[in-house]
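Thread: Newbie trying to understand structure tokens

Hi all, I'm a second-year student working on a class project, and my supervisor (Dr. K.) asked me to get a predicted structure for one chain before our next meeting. I've only ever worked with sequences, so writing a 3D structure as a token string is new to me. If someone could post the tokens and maybe explain what I'm looking at, I'd be very grateful. Here's the chain:
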Amino acid sequence: MQNTQGFTLIELLIVIAIIGILAATLIPNLLNARKAANSQAAQSYLQVAITGAESSRVNGTPIADSTSTDCNTAKTNGSTAPFPTSVTACQVYQTANGTYGYVTSANGVSYQFNGSKMVLASTAGLPASMP
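---
Reply by user tm_fold:
Sure, no problem. This is what the structure looks like when written as tokens:
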């Protein structure tokens, strides 16, 4: 008769419990990391659009002063491709004094560029004060 060895039921339950505890602690962290990455990607996308709009202004072809422009136009980022998946809305507005904009990430978080820095916005829209 052959003697086979294996794990006992208690050992298997302990391993399953440990795996469950690890999963319960790691999955929320991974989801939060994805949200943070989407927000950072959206901010970067707006920054590229602002840089493109400023470059157009310096070269003598500013974007329209009277209306806000989508970030995915050729004058702001050199391409008419659709927004990346991390961005749901992005607008750039240019005045004689500077370029302003806002972006909304796929998480629903909005950021504004107020002419000098990126700030978290309570609602999606251009900054209230644009000189």
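A couple of things are worth pointing out once you decode it. The mean pLDDT is 85. Residues 13 and 97 are 67 Å apart (CA to CA). Feel free to ask follow-ups in this thread.
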